[in-house]
């Protein structure tokens, strides 16, 4: 019994073994079909063909290449399987013929069978692709201050150039280091070329390729690079020359300075004059008797008389409305003179110039106004015609003083235009943050009554400050307190031109006060009311040549007008 | 334009005759000029075969005639560099002239039938055939002049008659296939002419290696 089971066990085992053997043998198969990839002849004297094997079917597979050739009987096998590497066939000179067709096949075989590839037909003249040119050298050359690149190379390896069997044509491409674009040039059959349009201080890379007759182009050769110099030679020479030439006058100047150093010293560092007080005797002081000194100091000091000062600046402030301009007679009236009310003392900020230049400028402005007189008449007609375009005060006055062809429309919202009008005579005076205009009467000393500050927006002309409209934050309180504009003050809306300050129209009360105050100013107030074209907040045009301030004291002009 | 070209080639001929009679132009320059012409001819035929290949019926690959049936295949030409370099100059020139002469008639047939060719680039092909004819004619005339300078051995020409008749097929497929076949034959022959002339040029200009 046990023997039977043992035998059955053996049988089972043997069956299993057979089965497994059978299974294994089923995975083996004849080889897959190989594929001929292509052939290549580098010099029209030899050629190589490559194939791709199919699956090997699990068994050791060999591949053989067979060919038939035109004008040659029979089927022949590849003469050389090794020289060109795996899965290749190399045909040497004895086996290579041109202008005849080859029919190639590859046969893969293993224990279980053979598989043949498709027929591959070729003629050597169609498969020509040369090797890359060799020894590409790149040189930077110079001829008459022109840089050029000289590129030289050698024919590809193993290619006959002596018999005319092949005609090699070359092509090269050049690239600057920073760009990605190649520029191509054909060289024909020459093995060198000069490239002339090159830049200094760049890295150039060059590649060369070739082809035989009308066959395929070879691969590009390895990139060869060279750096072009940065004109050091020329630049150095140039700067040496420049420095030498400039050194000569410099040295002569130094010599002169040294020789005349006394004069130079006097010029550059003038001696500070000692104090000289008129009427004061230095010797007296030295002697030191105090009473004498005090007397000398007090008596001899002469303060400038206020009257005289007043005389100097008897100038008139001209108040005008546009209506005033329409009336030619009224234009006559404005013999251009400026009135600065006696009570005014122009005291500018610390950084500003002295008042005297201001006065001088006022005088100048007066003269200018006289000159401009001529334009008034000419422009009155214009002003009439363009009244509609204008806001009351500014443009006509502008017209008067400046022969400007264009009218500037002035509104509350466009102070800039005033500035542009005034720009004709822009001369920066000084950068005063704040202008302090004080009012004092009777030629007294500076008596600060009210200090109103406005921020100067722009300084135009010698004597005009254009104030910024609106409240200065820091001084808001002060100005707020002055809600009720005092009678004598008008707020300057804008300053334009050399001699115009445009006042803002006050309330009716102020108007009446104005009216009361000055028969001279009747025109202005009348104008205000008469003028139908007044738009926006009512404005009063005041022609004055005054440093712009927050408030202008309208003082009646003397009857001179 | 053909008329202008023929008058142009006539002009070339007169110039060449004058030149030849003066014997002032060295033969290497004449060969250089001729090889430029053959280069152009081969380039044109290569382009034409590529154009035809682009629209070639797949079946054509199977039933296209073998190159051995080209009407010029009977002419025995060298088949590799070694053989070619052993051929004499006169023989090389004679071979070139024979091949060129053999294609005069087939090109006429091709230009006559190209209008019926069912190919998308048919007008371009027609233009190229015309150009081929003109270049072929001018090259042939030039080679005649050169052969005159090279002696009687160079004058011999083998005749290679074209027996393909006046048409290239009845149906669309055979027209395409025959046209393609003829052009491939011509491409091979134009390459032969080009190589022979370039070898001749190199040999004639021994003192000028740049000619090779």
UniProtKB/TrEMBL annotation, chain A:
Domain Fibronectin type-III: 132-231
GO CC terms of this entry: external side of plasma membrane
Signal sequence extent: 1-25
Compartment(s): Membrane
Keyword Glycoprotein: yes
One example GO MF annotation: cytokine receptor activity
Superkingdom as given in the UniProt entry: Eukaryota
Record membrane topology: Single-pass type I membrane protein
Keywords: Disulfide bond, Glycoprotein, Membrane, Metal-binding, Receptor, Repeat, Signal, Transmembrane, Transmembrane helix, Zinc
Segments traversing the membrane: 237-259
Pfam entry (one): EpoR_lig-bind
Matches recorded under SMART domains: FN3 (SM00060)
Family statement: Belongs to the type I cytokine receptor family. Type 1 subfamily.
Protein name from the UniProt record: Prolactin receptor
Biological source species: Lates calcarifer (Barramundi)
TrEMBL record, chain B:
One GO biological process term: positive regulation of cell population proliferation
Top-level taxon in the UniProt lineage: Eukaryota
Keywords annotated in UniProt: Disulfide bond, Hormone, Secreted, Signal
Subcellular location: Secreted
Signal peptide interval: 1-24
Gene3D superfamilies: 1.20.1250.10
Keyword Signal: yes
GO molecular function (one): hormone activity
SUPFAM superfamilies: 4-helical cytokines
InterPro entries named in the record: 4_helix_cytokine-like_core, Somatotropin/Prolactin, Somatotropin_CS
GO CC terms, sorted: extracellular space
Primary subcellular site in the record, as a coarse category: secreted
Family per similarity comment: Belongs to the somatotropin/prolactin family.
PANTHER family named among the record's database cross-references: PROLACTIN (PTHR11417:SF5), SOMATOTROPIN,PROLACTIN (PTHR11417)
Record-given protein name: Prolactin
Source organism of this protein record: Lates calcarifer (Barramundi)
Species classification: Eukaryota, Metazoa, Chordata, Craniata, Vertebrata
